[in-house]
Design a protein that fits this description.
Helix 1 runs antiparallel to helix 2 and helix 3 packs antiparallel against helix 4. It is built from 13 helices and nine strands.
């Protein structure tokens, strides 16, 4: 099935950039319009998704449904735009990314329909199967419900574009809709182990955009749960380089007695998980040699680059940074760009909060 996003870099902070010119893409959804082909693709997508809901089991049905939905979105099909927001909202896509990331991407899709001032054009005499006002209100309801359950206010991104308060106020004024869930910001303490496990498993299983490296803040208790003997995360440590930093030392996590003793010795306080995935999963841009070189750089000088990220995260009240090939590729201009330069430019961008467009 033809992919519609192959030339787009999905960056660690939710921004998207063109691979060809390394410029940010503020809106990847084209003009909304009803077309015969868009309607056909969306119908096929929905039939596959419903077939999976009814029978379960074969998740490739969902993947095919999402692929068809992307094609319909590329044609401006409004219902497909709302459904793509739903796929991000409900964690069908980019499961290796933070919920915060998926929420922001879903915001972009929901907003395209919810804040559209004029009904989309109908091409070739196509008659919409859903009234435009009904579709807008349905999307607005889904939008505010998602925002009500968001992890954090999200107001710090793109000058309030993702702000829960600003969006819910705007939707209330336009449609008179309130979330039945009530606006709340979830407490994410205690979910670090689940997130870490998801990321590490994705290193092996994600065949198109596996996590490349990153840091995750945990409690000692969460670290113990993640790396229980025979856990999925512990099994992954045979393929992915994983370390824990308890402030006093950094030690490798694997199925050895020394590692088990170090894990058992964790008493309390914060623990930072460092990982580099240079061998398994899908990597679209970096070669095996580039990933190996990057892995060596990340542990060089007693994990100096990891520690720099950790200190930046602590300063900003963050608990995780997860990177993929896309983030490093943004800083590679031609085959002669050293991987060290690309990696360090990426870390400078993260730590110094530079704007992507001004790099």
């Amino acid at each position: 099935m033809k992919r519609t996003d192959e030339q787009i870099l999905e960056l660690y902070d939710g921004q998207m950039a063109s691979l060809s010119n390394k410029r940010l893409i503020s809106d990847t959804v084209p003009e909304l319009k009803f077309t015969a082909r868009g309607r056909e693709l969306f119908a096929l997508s929905e039939s596959l998704y419903c077939k999976w809901l009814e029978g379960g089991g074969d998740y490739t049905l969902v993947e095919k449904a999402i692929g068809l939905c992307r094609e319909a979105v590329a044609l401006g099909e409004p219902r497909a735009v709302v459904k793509m927001a739903f796929y991000y909202d409900k964690d069908y896509i980019s499961t290796e990314r933070t919920e915060e990331f998926r929420c922001r991407v879903a915001c972009d899709y929901y907003a395209k329909v919810v804040y559209c001032d004029e009904p989309p054009r109908c091409i070739d005499g196509v008659v919409p199967e859903t009234e435009w006002s009904e579709l807008q209100r349905s999307a607005a309801r889904m939008f505010v419900d998602m925002l009500a359950g968001a992890q954090k206010p999200l107001a710090g991104y793109s000058e309030g574009k993702y702000s829960i308060t600003e969006n819910t106020d705007r939707i209330r004024a336009k449609f008179g809709i309130e979330s039945e869930l009530g606006t709340r910001v979830r407490n994410t303490s205690g979910d670090g182990d689940k997130f870490a496990e998801t990321v590490l498993i994705s290193c092996r299983r994600n065949r198109t955009r596996a996590p490349l490296f990153g840091i995750i803040g945990l409690t000692a208790m969460e670290a113990g749960r993640v790396f229980e003997p025979k856990s999925e995360a512990m099994k992954t440590c045979g393929d992915v380089n994983v370390w824990l930093d308890d402030g006093a030392r950094v030690f490798r996590v694997n199925n050895t007695s020394a590692s088990r003793a170090a894990l058992d010795a964790l008493k309390g306080g914060e623990v930072w998980l460092y990982f580099v995935n240079n061998e398994v999963g899908g990597h679209r841009y970096l070669s095996g040699k580039q990933r190996k070189d990057m892995s060596e750089l990340m542990v060089k000088d007693n994990f100096a680059r990891f520690i720099r990220l950790k200190e930046s995260a602590k300063e900003r009240g963050k608990s995780r940074y997860i990177f993929s090939d896309d983030d490093v590729q943004f800083f590679i201009n031609g085959k002669l760009t050293p991987i060290k330069s690309a990696l360090d430019n990426l870390l400078d961008r993260v730590v110094c909060d530079n704007e992507w467009g001004k790099l």
